[in-house]
């Protein structure tokens, strides 16, 4: 089942990205479960302060228990690996922002985006199946944005594109998205240095985030930072 709430007519969010239900997002109401967000709600971005959500797509997925290669499975980030106070899950193509010297050496910029599937093996992150059926929410804005999610992680949300757009490398992108050997090299550097701060920061240090209570979410998705 796919639920698409399109505020940007004719545009699509593509790829095996998105955030699983229960993942909390930094918003004007504090840390709010992603499934409770609606078009127009404002969330905290890395570059442009609070920005309204322009498009939401939700999909219920069921993955086979066997025969699915690890690169197509969600990634489990174990409790405490990156300041997260409980296990969280990432879709394999969900871009995650990394800040480190290796990115500067590779790209000429200390910031780079890497699909979550390349994080396997870093601080116990592993591929798996969260439940028989799970909901994935993909957020988009009127420009490419990076948003704060649980544990101080930074998730890349690309601007929706026209289906037939020519979106060659770097077109309108603020950050380089690394794949293949370049992405694996960067993650290997993080593994060698055990550099958790390159991917996650203490949620208490997230700037400009309200500290008030949030509306209750699903039982599986309590506010982890209260």
From TrEMBL:
SUPFAM superfamilies: Hedgehog/intein (Hint) domain
Residue ranges crossing the lipid bilayer per the database entry: none
One Pfam family named in its UniProt record: Hint_2
Domain Hedgehog/Intein (Hint), residue spans: 19-151
Positions with biased composition (Low complexity): 207-218
Region ranges (Disordered): 199-226
InterPro entries membership: Hedgehog/Intein_dom, Hint_dom_sf
This protein's name: Hint domain-containing protein
